[in-house]
Write a structure and sequence with these properties.
Helix content: over 70%
CATH class of the domain at 40-101 and 126-359: Mainly Alpha
Radius of gyration: 23 Å
Order of helices and strands: HHHHHHHHHHHHHHHHHHHHH
CATH architecture of the domain at 40-101 and 126-359: Orthogonal Bundle
C-alpha cells in the first residue's frame, strides 16, 4: 500500500515537473502580442546590442573602401555612420518601447494588414543573406580550430552544426539572447582589442604605405562610406521595436540613444578598421585567412578563431533570426520556434561560400547600397506615421483587428516607398540618405488628402 502511495507521489511530482518544463519552454516563445513583462534592463540592453553588432559584414565594408579613404577619413566616416544609426534607432524604437509591439505590428498602421508583408519581406531578405554569410565565416573559424587541434577538417559539417546551434539558441527567445549577450560581451571586447593589436603589429609597415599616406577624399565617396557602415545596421533600424519592446520602460530617449552609440561604435570601429587595414596591406578579405596569418601563437589563434565564431552567433541570433522569424509568424501564422527553423533552412540557399571570396567585397558593398535604398523609405514612413500623423498615440485594438480600419493594403505607403526607392537609385552611393525626405513627404501628403486614407488614421 505504501509502495503504491509512493509511486503515486512520484508520478504526481513527475507530472508537475513536466508541466513546469513545458510552461518554461512555452514562455520563451516570441509572440506578436504587446510585451508586458520586460526582461532587459539598461545594462543588458547595452550588452545585447554590443554583442549583436560585431558583424563580419563590417569587416567586409572596411575591405570595400580600400584605396578610397585614408585611415582618418575612414574613422570619421564610421563614427558619423554610428551616430546617425543611434539617432535613427532612437526615433524608430519608441513605438515598440512605449507599446510593447514588434516591428511587424508597428508597420500595420502605415501599410495595413495586407501591405505589411512588403516591409516584412524587405527586412527579411538581407537578414537571411547575412545569416548565411556570417554562419559560413563562423563555421570556417570552428573548422580551422578543429583542423589545428585535432586534424579534423570538414567545413560543410561545421556549417550545418553551426546553423543548428544558432537556430536552437534563437528558439529560446530573448531570455536566451540576454544570457548569451551578457556573458559574451566582455569576451568580445577583449578579443576585438587583441585582434586590432595583432593586425597593427603584423602589418604596421604595409598599413602606413597603403592607407595612412593615401590622400583619400572628403567628397561623395566619403559619404558613401558613412552610408555603408550605416547600411550594415539599416535593417536593425527598421525593426528596432523587436528589441526595444523587451527594454524596461523607465529609459528616456536620450539615454537609449547613448546606449545605441556606445554599443555600435566600438564594434564598428574595430571591425571596420581591421578590415580596411588588413585588406589594404594584404589584399585578403577573408577574416579566417587574415587571422590565421596574423596570429603566430597557436593558443591565441584558437582563442581568436573561437571569438570569430562566437561573435557570429551573438550577431545572428539577435539580428538575423528574430526579425525574419517574426515576419514568418505574421505571414503564415506559425509559432516562432517553427519560424526560426524555417529561417535556418532558407539561409542554406544564400550561397555564402561565394560571398566570402576576396573579390566579393565590392559585391557586398553593392548589396548594402541596394537594400539600403529600400530600407530608407520604410524608416521614413514609419517615423512620419508615428510622430507626425499619430503624435505617438497608437490604437492597439486596431493594430490587432485584422478586419478593422487597417485591413488590406495602404497603397499610399507603397507609393511613397516606390518614390523613395526611385530617388535612392538615382543617388545610389548615398541611397539611404537620398530616400528619406522624398518618401516621408509623399507619405505625409497622401495621408493628408483624406478620402479612404481616413480609416488608416483611426
Amino acid at each position: 500500500m505504501s509502495v503504491s502511495k509512493d509511486l503515486d507521489e512520484v508520478a504526481t511530482v513527475g507530472a508537475a515537473a513536466r508541466e513546469g518544463l513545458e510552461e518554461a519552454l512555452s514562455s520563451t516563445d516570441v509572440t506578436l502580442e504587446p510585451q508586458k513583462h520586460r526582461i532587459l534592463d539598461k545594462w543588458s540592453y547595452l550588452f545585447a546590442w554590443m554583442g549583436g553588432c560585431v558583424s563580419i559584414g563590417t569587416f567586409a565594408m572596411g575591405s570595400s573602401i580600400v584605396g578610397t579613404l585614408n585611415l582618418v577619413q575612414a574613422s570619421v566616416a564610421m563614427a558619423i555612420g554610428c551616430i546617425v544609426i543611434g539617432i535613427a534607432l532612437t526615433i524608430n524604437d519608441q513605438a515598440g518601447h512605449a507599446y510593447g509591439i514588434p516591428f511587424i505590428v508597428q508597420a500595420r498602421s502605415s501599410f495595413g494588414f495586407g501591405g505589411v508583408k512588403i516591409p516584412g519581406l524587405i527586412r527579411a531578405v538581407p537578414a537571411i543573406v547575412w545569416f548565411g554569410f556570417q554562419s559560413w565565416i563562423g563555421a570556417g573559424a570552428l573548422n580551422q580550430v578543429s583542423a589545428t587541434l585535432i586534424g579534423f577538417d570538414n567545413l560543410i559539417f561545421y556549417f550545418i552544426l553551426f546553423q543548428v546551434l544558432q537556430v536552437a539558441l534563437s528558439m529560446l527567445g530573448f531570455q536566451g539572447i540576454k544570457w548569451l549577450e551578457n556573458i559574451g560581451c566582455v569576451f568580445i571586447l577583449a578579443s576585438l582589442v587583441y585582434m586590432f593589436y595583432s593586425v597593427v603589429t603584423k602589418y604596421g609597415g604595409a598599413i602606413g604605405g597603403s592607407i595612412t599616406n593615401l590622400e583619400g577624399t572628403w567628397g561623395v565617396p566619403f559619404w558613401n562610406a558613412t552610408m555603408l557602415f550605416l547600411g550594415i545596421y539599416a535593417t536593425m533600424i527598421l525593426n528596432v521595436s523587436d528589441y526595444s519592446r523587451e527594454l524596461v520602460t523607465n529609459v528616456r530617449p536620450a539615454h537609449k540613444c547613448s546606449i545605441y552609440v556606445m554599443a555600435i561604435l566600438p564594434a564598428t570601429m574595430f571591425m571596420g578598421l581591421i578590415g580596411l587595414m588588413v585588406s589594404g596591406a594584404t589584399g585578403i578579405a577573408d577574416p579566417i585567412k587574415v587571422f590565421s596569418s596574423a596570429v603566430d601563437n597557436k593558443v591565441l589563434l584558437v582563442v581568436t578563431l573561437l571569438f570569430i565564431a562566437f561573435a557570429q552567433i551573438t550577431t545572428n541570433v539577435l539580428n538575423n533570426v528574430v526579425p525574419p522569424a517574426l515576419v514568418l509568424v505574421d505571414a503564415f501564422k506559425i509559432s516562432y520556434k517553427k519560424a526560426a527553423v524555417v529561417v535556418g533552412l532558407i539561409s542554406f540557399g544564400t550561397f555564402p561560400w561565394e560571398l566570402v571570396k576576396d573579390e566579393s567585397a565590392a559585391g557586398l558593398q553593392l548589396f548594402v547600397e541596394v537594400y539600403s535604398a529600400f530600407l530608407g523609405p520604410l524608416f521614413a514612413i514609419l517615423a512620419v506615421d508615428y510622430y507626425l500623423l499619430r503624435r505617438q498615440k497608437l490604437n492597439l485594438d486596431n493594430l490587432y483587428k485584422a478586419g478593422g480600419p487597417y485591413r488590406g493594403v495602404n497603397w499610399r505607403a507603397v507609393i511613397a516607398t516606390l518614390i523613395g526607392v526611385a530617388f535612392a537609385f538615382a543617388f545610389m552611393s548615398v541611397s539611404w540618405y537620398a530616400s528619406l525626405i522624398p518618401a516621408g513627404i509623399i507619405y505625409y501628403a497622401l495621408m493628408r488628402m483624406g478620402g479612404s486614407a481616413n480609416r488608416f488614421m483611426e
